[in-house]
Amino acid sequence: MEQINLPIAEKGVVDQIRKISDDTWDIKVFSPGIAKSSKAAQFVHVRVSEDFRPFLRRPLSVGPCSGDYLRLIFTVKGSGTRLLAQKSTGDVIDLIGPLGNPFKLPEDDEYPIIVGGGIGVVPLLLLDDQLEPDTPRDFLLGVRTESLLPVDEPEIKHRNIQIASDDGSIGFGGNVVQLLERKLSKLQSNRVVVYACGPGMMMYALKQVCIKHSIKAYISLEVPMGCGLGACQSCAVPRSDGDGYLLVCQDGPVFDATEVLIEPEVLR
Amino acid sequence: MEQINLPIAEKGVVDQIRKISDDTWDIKVFSPGIAKSSKAAQFVHVRVSEDFRPFLRRPLSVGPCSGDYLRLIFTVKGSGTRLLAQKSTGDVIDLIGPLGNPFKLPEDDEYPIIVGGGIGVVPLLLLDDQLEPDTPRDFLLGVRTESLLPVDEPEIKHRNIQIASDDGSIGFGGNVVQLLERKLSKLQSNRVVVYACGPGMMMYALKQVCIKHSIKAYISLEVPMGCGLGACQSCAVPRSDGDGYLLVCQDGPVFDATEVLIEPEVLR
Amino acid sequence: MSVDTTIRMGSLNLRTPLLTGSGTFGYGDEFGSIIDYSSFGGIITKSISLKPRAGNPPPRICETQSGGIINSIGLANVGIYNFIESKVDTLPMGKTEVFLSIVGDSVEEYVEVVEKLEDVSGIAGYELNVSCPNVRRGGLDLGGDKEAIAAIMSSVRTVTGRFVSVKLTPHYPVIAPVAQAAVDAGADALTLTNTLVGMEVDVERRKPLLGNVTGGYSGPPLKPVALAKVWQAAQVVDVPIWASGGMVNGIDCIEFLLAGASALQLGSVLFADPYAPGRILNEMIEYCERHDVTRLSDLVGKLETR
Amino acid sequence: MSVDTTIRMGSLNLRTPLLTGSGTFGYGDEFGSIIDYSSFGGIITKSISLKPRAGNPPPRICETQSGGIINSIGLANVGIYNFIESKVDTLPMGKTEVFLSIVGDSVEEYVEVVEKLEDVSGIAGYELNVSCPNVRRGGLDLGGDKEAIAAIMSSVRTVTGRFVSVKLTPHYPVIAPVAQAAVDAGADALTLTNTLVGMEVDVERRKPLLGNVTGGYSGPPLKPVALAKVWQAAQVVDVPIWASGGMVNGIDCIEFLLAGASALQLGSVLFADPYAPGRILNEMIEYCERHDVTRLSDLVGKLETR
Ligand SMILES: Cc1cc2nc3c(=O)[nH]c(=O)nc-3n(C[C@H](O)[C@H](O)[C@H](O)COP(=O)(O)OP(=O)(O)OC[C@H]3O[C@@H](n4cnc5c(N)ncnc54)[C@H](O)[C@@H]3O)c2cc1C
Ligand SMILES: Cc1cc2nc3c(=O)[nH]c(=O)nc-3n(C[C@H](O)[C@H](O)[C@H](O)COP(=O)(O)OP(=O)(O)OC[C@H]3O[C@@H](n4cnc5c(N)ncnc54)[C@H](O)[C@@H]3O)c2cc1C
Ligand SMILES: Cc1cc2nc3c(=O)[nH]c(=O)nc-3n(C[C@H](O)[C@H](O)[C@H](O)COP(=O)(O)O)c2cc1C
Ligand SMILES: Cc1cc2nc3c(=O)[nH]c(=O)nc-3n(C[C@H](O)[C@H](O)[C@H](O)COP(=O)(O)O)c2cc1C
Ligand code: FES
Ligand code: FES
Asked: Is C215 in contact with D186 (CB distance < 8 Å)?
């Protein structure tokens, strides 16, 4: 197993906050301890409220890092992310991280296809950075419609992200798993390794496709969490062999797609 | 019994808010329905939070009224009054009132002495206004120290309020009940009627003094309330005859001092 | 779209599923013109006992840091004789359905109070409060003992044909056995739940905030507990369930309907917001419109579990 | 002024009254360098059963509108054999006192697990969890039945001389009889309380928020209930009481001490704020300084009631 850095507690400082779309925000945080040691798919557990309302921390993937800074990119879903979106430059954010296991990087003979669904793209942005610059890859991102893109135009260009949209408003018309299938039909699939993160329904479909084509797929899962540290057993996902559960915060968030049962309802 | 106006629900509008001392605020509220029908010692039940935190309304005495406006004067004690102190001009305040029974005004041959303790002075300010202008009276107000005065200099002058302070920093050095005893020693006490409102300890001492001098005393009591409307029985005070309880919101807040048992601990 | 808000339960036909929680609405007229009866299906009075009760020493109400309240009224009420003499006439009959809450120290007391009320016409039914946390009783633990509850219910059944709901405490880990016992003894409905037993301390004065030390804990913090009890009971009994516990908005109420409640009691919320019934009814109707539900009653028990 | 934070209870001598709530701190090392053991008097492990348990279907945790959380872990644990093989060595013994929480489906299971642990040295004592809301049992209602609780405690007493606390559910209207039964059966302490049974519903999807529908409700909304139980029990038993329920700051903890608790378990708060133990200890010391209290233990049971 790869060497993983122990999680630390760090008070990050908001350097910059910007709105990417109607409900998606991108915060650049000064958090040297975590920024320097995080690997793709690891996450931070973020305290959103000092007065315990809401009560729990919120897990957020570490986005692209540069030097002492990391990026948190998130969609406002409920009260916790709403509070985070109200932060401004200079505000302190109580972080614990990096948590969880990172993506296993591709072997020399493997061709990585990165597949993001909506805000699930965040850990994949860091992965994209952590691949050797000269490693060829495909980076696919699905959204429902153009206005919900969780990354901006320059970032899409720079990373050469190929977009799929359900309503055809941008890029490929259809979902991102369909786009993946297209790609696969043009590649020698036993060399491909898929890296994916996205909503439950997408992960479900993606797993079927990867099984059909006998492709290795690493998926990063998102479920409600308590401690984030492997202590409370809140973040269980069923093993596909029926033998109990794995913990997303400790055994994941990255799993081999064949290891876990994907229940779209639970992952949301 | 005097004719009492039925309580109404009214959305008051903050006309002006000013800080009187470190923790005391004076809000002038446009609330024509309540302002026009309130009598001294009646109160309004104020919703301090739209999202039920804190949960209960706060009872506040109706202060001096002029035309369509009433004044709420209050000390910040906890979360409810803290929220009220954050109101600003134009804000809407959800009020129910006037509630409770007013002071019984003095008979022609009675000499009123008004005795306030701290913020308990509020209902007495309205009483002062509602006495016939040419009615002679004494208006005493006790505070711990000058900086805690709940009314400002001009108001004290205008109403000719005589101050007592525990530490002697202003006016009579001693508590207001001692000041009352001084007054009484100079008056023919069977003509005197006392109107009082203040903290539990003061009310306790005041009752003893009035009994000693066989003086009629009307006191206005403050206890934690639920409904404010006589429905929930939260605001009970023990009858002095031992036969159960009276309700401050329905039978009070004004009581004949001999009617009720004064438990300083409960009144705070 | 117009949403049908009526609820049918046995012999009852309520205009809306909203009722008042006993003890939070007095004998029904105290809120005066401030309340809008048209949003209610009915009201439930303060619990009435055989003899008048003075209630507990003050303070009787406090707030909790957790956003709820605790009361220790101690069932202060005028007693059945005074009630019949001076309160019956003020009940809002005609404006809405009126249910009387009954409390007693013994099986006989419940029966006696109900018998006396049988002569009063226009009463829609009774709620038997066998779960008040604020009074200590002799040998009988009425709130905990399912035999005692069954005895009260079956004895009351012998003296009335009117609709009777039995109101239970949330202080059972699992409500099923006692719920079943109450229904077997003849209950037409179950009310779930009464308050939790709670307490707050003023650390500066080292004193409890309530004169009686402990009291009944209600408001939003109670909601998840009452909801669990409603759901647990709905799995085992087939009488309607009246929900009580922490509802402050339409969504809370929809949660209870989905979990299996047919009627919804608004209690503590009335202190903060006496206009809650109208607001909440509108919020429920909006939910129905958004989800193409034509009758509120269609939501009852429609929680999807595996 | 320096405040003495130690707490003595029978054979135990704890550095501070702060413990961890079972199930919120794993087997004691998961929090790694994030936690400061020096603020703790001891830790209590996740409940351990005879056989490994997989636990309940996800989702297993949700928040409540009322500011608490509900979990339905379902006592997922590695079982006593795996525990002894692979977890015992990671226990933070030496750093702090270590208590093992035990759960079982029968009297015999509790006894068997404790027997196996008797060979492990360095264990300060046990907490018997007879109150978990997340598992259904056969005939025995272990959380509600005082005879069953007494049987478990007295049987465990025959195999260990170590300190044993019995952890009870808050789902009793009055805790006294069951508290007394546990003490009579040999408990050295009582833990009050475990979680309430609670539930939340997602009205948009018409589904419960937890896979198991109901779960254990903890955090701030639980505090007033646990406080009442601690106070009620302190009136009748003379063993120390370990408080558990909703504490998030030093004032909460002082409330429990005044109500009669000798030790204070921090549970859910650790998820939000793993630094809570140090912060809370400081807040308690500040309170003591402000009130001229030289020993934290002097506050125990010092609530003034009439
Ligand atoms: C390892 C991991 C990495 C994540 N990375 C990101 C990211 O980079 N950007 C991003 O926008 N979101 C990410 N999420 C999802 C994010 O944590 C949730 O959207 C967020 O917690 C919702 O909180 P809220 O207060 O806005 O919503 P609410 O609806 O108020 O949340 C209620 C509760 O449900 C939990 N919850 C709800 N949805 C999810 C979910 N999908 N996953 C986990 N918990 C959930 C919350 O933590 C909270 O306890 C990640 C989740 C995990 C587990
Ligand atoms: C009839 C009446 C008239 C009043 N008039 C005034 C006034 O004009 N100006 C003023 O400053 N105060 C007045 N009070 C007292 C005022 O209601 C309380 O100070 C206020 O409710 C405290 O709320 P809080 O949120 O600041 O304090 P918190 O400490 O947060 O309050 C906690 C709870 O205790 C209750 N409470 C605490 N102290 C009192 C008290 N003395 N009386 C009633 N309830 C209390 C609160 O309503 C609340 O439910 C009056 C009280 C009554 C009953
Ligand atoms: C001040 C007060 C008095 C109450 N009195 C009674 C009562 O007399 N009889 C009864 O059955 N329930 C009584 N209750 C309980 C309520 O009817 C209701 O069941 C409980 O408060 C939970 O609902 P809520 O959270 O909506 O208030 C009382 C509650 C409060 C707050
Ligand atoms: C996620 C979680 C798991 C828990 N697991 C256990 C357990 O295994 N055994 C037990 O006795 N209590 C368990 N509890 C209950 C806690 O120990 C504690 O008694 C309860 O949560 C109340 O305290 P709190 O509000 O401080 O969390 C658990 C609580 C939580 C939140
Ligand atoms: S969140 Fe606590 S174990 Fe994963
Ligand atoms: S506050 Fe409800 S009766 Fe007085």
From this structure: no
Do residue B47 and residue B130 come from a single domain? no
Name the minimum distance, in Å, from the CA of D85 to any CA of chain C.
34
| Same-domain pairing of A61 and A118 | no
Domains for chain C: give ranges and CATH numbers.
7-299 (3.20.20.70)
Please name which of A199, A139, A148, A183 lies closest in space to residue A169, comparing C-alpha atoms. Answer: A148
Helices (H), C53-135: 79-82, 107-117
| Residues of chain C with C-beta less than 8 angstroms from the C-beta of D305 | 207-208, 213
ipTM (interface predicted TM) = 0.96
Answer whether B163 touches C (CB < 8 Å). no
* Other beta carbons less than 10 A from residue A218's beta carbon: 23
Q: Are residues A81 and A165 in the same domain?
A: no
**Taking residues B67-80, what's their average pLDDT?**
96
Q: Are B217 and B252 in contact (CB under 8 A)?
A: no
Q: CATH number of the domain that A238 lies in?
A: 3.40.50.80
Task: Please report all neighbours of A, defined by 3+ CB atom pairs within 8 A.
Answer: D
**CB-CB neighbors (< 8 A) of D285 in chain C:** none
Q: Report yes or no: A203 and A196 within 8 Å, Cβ to Cβ.
A: yes
CA dist D281 and D295 (Å) reads 13
Query: Which ligand does the CA of A45 lie closest to?
Result: 1
Of A7, A227, A230, the CB nearest to D271: A227
Is the same domain home to B227 and B120?
Answer: yes
What confidence tens digit (pLDDT) does each residue in D65-80 have? 999 999 999 999 999 9
- Helices C223-234 and C176-184 cross at an angle (nearest 10°) of 60
Which residues of A are less than 8 Å from D269 in CB distance?
52
Contact present, C20 and B224 (Cβ < 8 Å): no
- Chain C positions touching D143 (Cβ under 8 A) are 173
Q: C236 touching D, CB under 8 A? A: no
Q: What is the distance in angstroms between the Cα of D210 and the nearest Cα belonging to chain C?
A: 10
Residue of chain A nearest D56, judged by CA positions = A236
Residue D272's SS3 state is helix
Residue D290: CB atoms within 10 Å = 10
DSSP state of C195: P
Q: What's the burial of D85, exposed, middle or buried (CB within 10 Å: 0-12/13-18/19+)? A: exposed
Contact between C32 and B9 using a beta-carbon 8 Å cutoff: no
State whether B246 and B145 are in the same domain: yes
Scanning C111-170 for CB atoms below 8 A from D yields 131, 133, 141, 143-144, 169-170
Q: Which of the four pLDDT bands, split at 50, 70 and 90, describes residue B189?
A: low
Q: Is the CB of A32 inside a 6 Å radius of any atom of ligand 5?
A: no
Q: Give me the active site residues of D, please.
A: 132
**Structure-derived torsion over alpha carbons of residues A213, A215, A221, A227, reported in degrees to the nearest 10:** 150
Chain D residue at shortest CA distance from A231: D26
Asked if residue A52 belongs to a domain, the reply is yes
Residues of chain A with pLDDT under 70: 1-5, 189, 266-268
CATH number at residue B93: 2.40.30.10
Regarding whether B54 and B179 lie in a shared domain, the answer is no
- Domain holding B51, by residue range, is 8-99
Structure confidence at residue D139 as a pLDDT band (50, 70, 90): very low
Residue A76 sits in the same domain as residue A163: no
Model pTM above 0.80: yes
Mean per-residue pLDDT of chain D: 93
- The per-residue DSSP string of B176-218 comes to HHHHHHHHHHHS-GGGEEEEEE--HHHHHHHHHHHHHTT-EEE
Give the residue on D whose Cα is nearest the Cα of C258. Answer: D206
**Best mutation site among C45, C53, C60 for testing chain B: the one with the most B CBs within 10 Å?**
C60
Residues of chain B with pLDDT > 70, as a percent, come to 97
Where does a domain end: A72, A99, A126?
A: A99
